[in-house]
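Methods — Computational structure assignment.
A single polypeptide chain was analysed. Its primary sequence is given first, followed by the predicted tertiary structure written as structure tokens.
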Amino acid sequence: MLASGTKLPSQTTHTNSSSNGSKFIAKSTGINADGNLMRHNGQVFPCLLETLISPSTTKDVTFTAPYVILDTDYENFSCIYSCVEFNYGYYADFAFIFSRSPSLSDQYLRRCEAAFKEIGVDVSRFAKTVQGSNCPYDTQKSL
């Protein structure tokens, strides 16, 4: 049963499957509920029955997602948030803290944490990405 307000595609989705001998390739094309063309490409790989009940799949999916800048000073940092609905009611949200240098001052980090907490993002789940010294940061600033 579909949730109230769920939009279904207005036209049929076509899926073509083929095999190259080692995997199946699936390509789907159709019109979504908003009338936009949608394409999904994926692969189906064989797997052991002991590990999975059904075959595993991968998808090459492109979609539009909101990109919300919660806070920034336009020179040192930005706090970015995005939330996407897919498959009729499943959600994925993303939160990023971007910096123009390999390290970020605590004052900017606290501003981002406050911005994320204000919209209910659990900042304790964040993982720091350690930046290496091999990246040409000064060159990238001018891009």
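Note: Strands lie at 14-19, 24-31, 37-45, 56-61, 68-72, 77-86, 90-99.
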